[in-house]
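Chapter review: from sequence to fold.
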Amino acid sequence: MRYTSLIKLTIVLALCVIVLGAYTRLADAGLGCPDWPGCYGEMIVPASEAEVEHKHYLEQRPLEPHKGWAEMVHRYFAGALGLLILIITIWSWRRRRDHYPQPVWLPTLLLGVVIFQALLGMWTVTLLLKPVVVMGHLLGGFTTLALLFSLLLIVSDRAGSYGSQGLRGWALLGLLVLVLQIALGGWTSTNYAALACTDFPTCHGQWWPQADFGEAFVMWRGLGVNYEFGVLDNPARTAIHLTHRIGALVTFLYLGALVLAMLRRGGDLSAPALTVAILLLLQIGLGISNVLLHLPLAVAVAHNAVAALLLLSLVYVNFLLWRRQY
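The token string follows.
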């Protein structure tokens, strides 16, 4: 069906946007363009400062074309994603008008989320990478992906047979635990705390080094501050890093227990349980590699991509378990 195929294409595009966003952030290209939605006043990145017509942008930031292109490619893909979600929303309402059993409020919610995402993208630049905005932008991307996948499951109705009522609450809590850990990962990245500890499993050779938790999680520090490369002292960054590690341990233990419970129930839950287990182990391995290998760009981007796939796997598990409501 063309409608279902469009949703699948949009899911792939949403995953690409998440990966490109991670690459842009981790390559320190979040301010590759000092303006929005263009770059130095143009929709195509100028090749050199001599080609910049609006010279006042150069006073804000010297031109680095490779960073500008990283940012603009991300914007191009995000714009295409927004356009496809608009088409899905309009198509959903038209299908409902033609008496299809079609959900319309989920696509409408998606459209609202992607509009807010565009605003967060703008504020990411205009507010100079303010951590709470960058983290919100990251979570908005993951939310968009999860809602698109949920829509696909609902309209395709291929989730399989009913799983187990006894696991519903545990699976829903597992999804929440993962979302909180993704948020912690975003906070770690946007505060440049990923390398606050460069050894594992200890940090600075200690199990509990000096850490400033009070300063680490201040969400708002006023306006006019440039947060590129971070503004926190090492103890605050260490506190963020330690919190992310603790969150990873909690997530691993909880989802591991959930996987074991699903495997014991068997049936249609076995394959999704194994998928969650594989992605969980891969994600933990990538996280440790980021520390020991000093945050190589490819590994760090993969860490974001696998987090997105792990989220989708848990959305699918929850859909299996709650399917009788649809």
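Two observations follow directly from the output. The chain has two domains: 1-158, 162-326. The radius of gyration is 21 Å.
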